[in-house]
Amino acid sequence: MKIAIIGTMGIPPSYGGAETAVNEISRRLIKRGHEVIVYGSKRFYKQFKSSVNGIEVYNLPFFYLRWIDFPMRRILSTLHVLTKSVDVVHFWGMDGATYSLFLKMKGIPSVITLDGFEWERSSYSSIIKFVLRGYIRIPKYTINNVVIDSIPAHAYYINQLNIPAQFIPYGANLNTQRGYDPVHRKLGLKPDNYILFVGRLVDEKGVHILIEAYSKLSKTLVIPLVIVGGSNFRSSYITKLKTLASENVIFTGPIWGKECSALFRNARLYVSPSFLEGTSPAILESLGSGNCTIVSDISMNRYAFGNACIYFKSGDVSDLSKKIEWALTNDEILEKYRDLAINIVKKKYSWDKITSQYERIYIKSCIAGNK
User: Fold this and answer.
1) What's the mean per-residue pLDDT of the chain?
2) Residue 153: what pLDDT?
3) pTM above the 0.70 mark?
């Protein structure tokens, strides 16, 4: 099959979890004999056309206003893919359902992956939330197969919207080899001696909760808090975070690839204070790195990770601080949750298994599109 993927910032991943997923799935599809086209953004990649691990990549213009950038790149990507001979188009993100109308008119089947309750993101304006809410029923009429990465959202689409959907989470690679890496020297860190967060620095990720909780730790327990990530758009939130932070909080900006992997593998503790998630790729990478991981007790996390994580009450600074202190002062707890992390990734979140699920979805969509 020839598969086109639209709606992310592109590959290699340099923005968020969707980009990581597309990269992992696309590489495996290529090895299985398929052809893959990925549409991305010139925000990170200057060439319009390139090849990454055998994947054909097209990078479209970037617009610094989010409400212009996402729809414009999706429109341009959809119009461009109509000039290519593809068997199926895979959209990432809710608004892709609208642009799939162009494909439907041409008889090209489509798949869409939805990231939980996208319209509830606090980093979105009221107008964007309203527009996204307006999209939620469109996939029923324009998309051949809907995929959702969150069990609560999956249930909502089936039970409340009567939209057939399949649950497919993100995956993780198991890589638990700890040890010193040049990135530690660059950042002034020691392996197994820092708390880590990795993700986009936007409101719903709750990083301000983490910084406030960290500030309440006993002085004898203070090890560096490393915050990896940034925002693709101008952000007052990052300014707020840096105002809250003490001198032991290290903002690295975006880090990807081997350096980011080394930071995951050697963290003492990983913390995700998000208010909203699907199946978080960053939490999965933490688990795949064999970390003791503390996360907010939102339903999406509890469904996805079961007993493999330590939970704190979402938004509760005091409870998060207590859970961090509890983990840092109990080596047995750290080891227990490190073992649980490895076990859940082996059991549920293999990228090979997830790629096979998507492969079956693509075949199913092609069969339906040819009827």
Assistant:
1) 90
2) 83
3) yes
pLDDT tier at 283 (50, 70, 90 boundaries)? very high
Report which secondary-structure segment, H or E, holds 133: helix 126-135
Three-state DSSP class for residue 108? coil
Within 13 Å and on the Cβ side, how many CA atoms surround 309?
29
Q: How far apart are CA 243 and CA 362, in angstroms?
A: 47
Contact 95, 128 (CB under 8 A): no
Q: CA of 72: how far to CAs of 60, 75, 222, 305, in Å? A: 9, 5, 45, 35
| Under 8 Å between Cβ of 14 and 3 | no
- What is the number of helices (H) and of strands (E) in the chain? 15, 14
Residue with tokens 């006993």: 218
Provide the greatest CA pair distance for the chain: 67
The domain 2-171+350-369: what is its CATH number? 3.40.50.2000
Tokens for 204?
Answer: 């719903």
Q: Which CATH number fits domain 182-348: 3.30.230.10, 3.90.550.10, 3.40.91.80, 3.40.50.2000?
A: 3.40.50.2000
How confident is the model over 178-207, as pLDDT tens digits?
999 999 999 999 999 999 999 989 899 999
